[in-house]
Specification:
The chain has 308 residues and is of the alpha/beta class. It has 10 helices and 16 strands. Strand 2, helix 1 and strand 3 form a beta-alpha-beta unit. InterPro entries: Aldolase_TIM, BKACE.
């Protein structure tokens, strides 16, 4: 089973809030520190969101992104992957702002509008550090995470084509694979890098058979002409990404996707999750891709063309 596996680490995201974990990075300094440590632990790709350093709420200001992107770029060789999903409260222009500013090697591209519910977290906690946290969680009950065909076309026209940025296509359900196939047929993308997303309320569940099903449909639609990875949200993270690696895929971990290292044990850093999955992969006889190896595998433009 000698092959290279790309580890992506999603450092902070926009779902978890400061009250949920004291280890969730919020300030630019914390995000940079944890991202650099995750890269040193073996993450070839760093998936990045920004937060307001005063209260931890999701943010989109490119100047805020640069405060952590510049030290990450200077101190690691990792591939920078900037969200274009941001948060459901942001407009498309806001979600694109940071990526358009720095022209990253990679960015996320969400493949469909959907219900994206994280309001059930409210039932698990009663005390909050900031008033915005329960309000933000509750807002997901009636919000739609918008990613229309027109929105996706804008991502290609405004980011992919002029900047040479390649996408991590986040597919939360089977229908998203068919949407991606539509864009492949129209010539927008060749050999996509697909991130199967399992476990978000509103998308496909975090079940092992669902991963098998998503992979089967992707094989049907794309043949061998695609690369893929697995994001398992919540407590099923490590088991699902291990299954993905055994099935020939790449893996994604990080505090954006799960705050835990293993059941009932909260992770103290992103690097801790990277170290754990790296040990599992190596025990399975798999090699960990370096950032430069991942660049070749995914056909990226190179870190020297990022505007940092």
């Amino acid at each position: 089973m000698q092959r290279k596996v790309i580890i992506t680490c999603a450092i902070t995201g926009s779902i978890h809030t400061p009250s949920m974990s004291p280890y969730l990075p919020v300030t630019p300094a914390q995000i940079a520190e944890q991202a650099i440590a995750a890269a040193q632990a073996g993450a070839a790709v760093l998936h990045l969101h920004a937060r307001n350093p005063d209260d931890g709420r999701p943010a989109f200001d490119p100047a805020l992104y640069r405060q952590f992107l510049e030290p990450i770029h200077a101190q690691t060789n990792a591939i920078i992957n900037i969200t274009t999903g941001g948060a459901h409260t942001m407009s498309l222009d806001q979600r694109l702002a940071a990526a358009l500013d720095v022209s990253p090697e990679m960015a996320s591209c969400n493949m469909g509008s959907m219900n994206f519910g994280f309001f059930p977290i409210l039932d698990k906690r009663k005390n909050w550090q900031y008033d915005w946290e329960p309000e933000f969680l509750e807002s997901s009950r009636n919000a739609i995470f918008r990613n229309t065909f027109g929105d996706i076309e804008q991502l290609f026209e405004r980011l992919a084509k002029p900047h040479g940025t390649r996408f991590e296509f986040e597919c939360y359900d089977v229908g998203h694979l068919y949407t991606l196939h539509h864009f492949v047929e129209r010539g927008f993308v060749k050999r996509p890098f697909i991130q199967f997303v399992l476990g978000v309320l509103g998308g496909i569940g975090a079940d092992h058979e669902n991963l098998t099903h998503m992979k089967r449909i992707a094989d049907k639609l794309f043949g061998v002409d695609y690369d893929w990875s697995l994001l398992g949200a919540g407590r099923r993270q490590m088991g699902l990404v291990t299954q993905a690696a055994l099935m020939g895929g790449n893996v994604r971990v990080g505090l954006e996707d799960s705050l835990y290292l293993r059941p009932n044990e909260i992770a103290i850093s992103n690097a801790q999750q990277v170290q754990l999955i790296r040990g599992v992969l190596e025990a399975l006889g798999l090699d960990i891709a370096t950032p430069d190896e991942a660049r070749l595998m995914l056909g990226l433009k190179g870190g020297d063309r990022v505007q940092l």
